[in-house]
């Protein structure tokens, strides 16, 4: 049901001809109100794509009536012309919808450093506007795919109100892989401050902790739009939890569809002195190419886990570290623990627990293995 | 000529049976004096192997008479028993050479988390001591190989004195890949303070700037031993330059033999505000898996270079960045530059220049591409 699960939203997804293979490549999401509150979180990469620069600016007012998303080109590192193109896209949508361009966010994904074919994109915006529908969420989710093998949507329905969303990509926010674009919608009646607070809280422990390959995109964007059409104002905590659930679900879908992956790896850091320590250690483990190769080979190589922990500034004593892989404590007190041959690595999900024995904080980072397919997908053609 | 190119040194390399395939796995390097000054640089990983903990302690006196090196096992994360084994190894060498154990450094490389077969290693030390020779440098270099396809040696001879050395591994010091072990010898007559200063200066701009896969070893060690046998005390600057030349040569040999690599990538960062900025940016580019895959595919994907620069805290303005790949300025002022089709990517060496346009400092980091062979080599078996 995607972005049209919540009342007050329409969407469309079409093939505008931006992608040379004729696949769908343009999505439009419209908030028909009565409220048009919005919040957004963007890549922390300092090299930001034109649509990110535009949408960050637009979001400052906390109001969005529409989002235009295209695959087939990131419009990043495209200079002043790229920014003009983003602006023209917003203007075209505004014209078609009879709203102001300052209420239109733009998201793009695809190859960096190439200008978008505006002769195809602008007519596409008109076509999409003409096809807007309360059932268009699915098509919108399909139109934003790039290397995704499946489209990703999620919906949580509560007492009279709903949070739904769609995502593309196989990565994270800060830093992020390829481009992750997410649009969330709700019909709950909330102002932009509440949306912003709930969105930041949710992304901090979901998308921000999905680390497919440690590479940060120039285009990552997560938007949350509220229509108020349900005429219900939920308690903030309940709303925030619903947003977190949808973000978590979409984040899991991103990892499961990560480029070339054959294993989904849950890295759980426990007994850390601080949450920051837990996140730092989790990220270091999740980014260790040697470990990711070992997991691909179904080798419970805990030495590579310790080696990754050792590069961090987290509080720990090397001879108190413990590591479990799929439930077997293969490393105890920094040395050899239970028999590594007991570790069953046959399944897609691999669970690594790193016990820092330095406190009581915890954090979980999701990543995937490093495979020859990942290399192929990222070397055989530009993306 | 390796570690026996300089006068005053003998060495041996034998098969002690530590490796199950019967390949050479134990090396011994002995400084016969008259001087026995030494300096060392070790991994900055906080999880340090037993031989690193031992050798760091031994080096505090600035004196080394011998180095025992084994492949076939890293003796890392092996607890108190692992440290006892390292100690016993030094004791055995001391006994065979009639010196003190506190004058013997130990280096190990191989799988983490496995105890060494001391019943094979200790007799091996005796055998090696019996085979010490002024021509043993080559055999010693061969005995420390693990996944290395070739052994690595380098020699610089100046006016009456020599600096020579051997290395194994495909990585770097801090952080480092797999295990890098390096032993350098000189017959110049210098004290340990001069050796330490020259060694740290040399490694900072050579091994420290070789970044094969961003993974830091628990065992990295670089030792420099001086015999004084040439009875010449060179000017410090001349000596330091010779040490730097040997380190640079060995570092290049490590990159050229990096696991699975098909391209050697020179990342040169220019016009940085500070040298630290240049190193940070160079490392970020060198560690970007997506870029490393693109280079493997002979794709001059400069967008991934900018995306990597954008994750750093270095001083720069996104719209002033320039990037050249193999001499073609494919990115100018943060946007599209010269035609990327002009970039010739057919050769093994790839030269990336990142111009930060923020100052006048520079740094060069060496890395390699990410290939399916790297994945295979690090997933098909434990290492």
Automatic annotation (TrEMBL), chains A, B:
UniProt cross-references to HAMAP family, sorted A to Z: ArgJ (MF_01106)
EC numbers, comma separated: 2.3.1.35, 2.3.1.1
GO molecular function, one term: L-glutamate N-acetyltransferase activity
Pathway entry: Amino-acid biosynthesis; L-arginine biosynthesis; N(2)-acetyl-L-ornithine from L-glutamate: step 1/4; Amino-acid biosynthesis; L-arginine biosynthesis; L-ornithine and N-acetyl-L-glutamate from L-glutamate and N(2)-acetyl-L-ornithine (cyclic): step 1/1
GO biological process assignments: L-arginine biosynthetic process; ornithine biosynthetic process
GO cellular component: cytoplasm
Main location: cytoplasm
Gene giving rise to this polypeptide: argJ
Name this polypeptide is given: Arginine biosynthesis bifunctional protein ArgJ
Transferase in keyword set: yes
Function noted in UniProt: Catalyzes two activities which are involved in the cyclic version of arginine biosynthesis: the synthesis of N-acetylglutamate from glutamate and acetyl-CoA as the acetyl donor, and of ornithine by transacetylation between N(2)-acetylornithine and glutamate.
Coiled coil segments of this chain: none
């Amino acid at each position: 049901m995607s972005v049209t699960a919540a009342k007050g939203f329409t969407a469309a997804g079409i093939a505008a001809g931006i992608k040379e293979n004729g696949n769908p490549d343009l999505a439009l999401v419209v908030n028909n109100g009565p409220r048009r509150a919005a919040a957004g979180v963007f890549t922390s990469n300092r090299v930001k794509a034109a649509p990110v620069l535009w949408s960050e600016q637009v979001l400052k007012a906390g109001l969005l009536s529409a989002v235009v998303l295209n695959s087939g080109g990131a419009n990043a590192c495209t200079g002043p012309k790229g920014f003009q193109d983003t602006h023209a896209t917003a203007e075209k949508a505004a014209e078609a919808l009879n709203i102001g361009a300052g209420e239109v966010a733009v998201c793009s994904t695809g190859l960096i450093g190439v200008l978008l074919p505006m002769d195809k994109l602008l007519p596409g915006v008109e076509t999409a506007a003409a096809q807007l529908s309360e059932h268009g969420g699915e098509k919108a989710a399909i139109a934003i795919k790039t290397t995704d093998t499946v489209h990703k949507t999620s919906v949580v329905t509560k007492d009279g109100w709903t949070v739904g969303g769609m995502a593309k990509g196989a990565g994270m926010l800060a830093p992020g892989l390829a481009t992750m674009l997410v649009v969330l919608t709700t019909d709950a009646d909330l102002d932009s401050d509440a949306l912003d607070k709930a969105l930041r809280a949710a992304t901090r422990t979901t998308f921000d902790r999905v680390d497919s390959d440690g590479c940060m995109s120039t285009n990552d964007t997560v938007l949350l739009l509220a229509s108020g059409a349900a005429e219900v104002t939920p308690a903030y905590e309940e709303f925030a939890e619903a947003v977190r659930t949808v973000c978590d679900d979409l984040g899991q879908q991103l990892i499961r569809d990560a480029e070339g992956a054959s294993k989904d790896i849950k890295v759980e850091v426990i007994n850390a002195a601080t949450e920051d320590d837990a996140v730092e250690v989790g990220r270091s483990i999740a980014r260790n190419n040697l470990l990711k190769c070992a997991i691909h080979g179904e080798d419970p190589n805990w030495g590579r886990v310790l080696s990754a922990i050792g590069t961090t500034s987290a509080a720990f004593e090397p001879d108190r570290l413990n590591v479990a892989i799929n439930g077997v404590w293969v490393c105890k007190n920094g040395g050899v623990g239970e028999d590594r041959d007991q570790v069953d690595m046959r399944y897609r999900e691999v669970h690594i627990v790193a016990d820092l024995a330095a406190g009581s904080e915890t954090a979980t980072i999701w990543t995937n293995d490093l495979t020859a397919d990942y290399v192929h997908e990222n070397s055989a053609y530009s993306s």
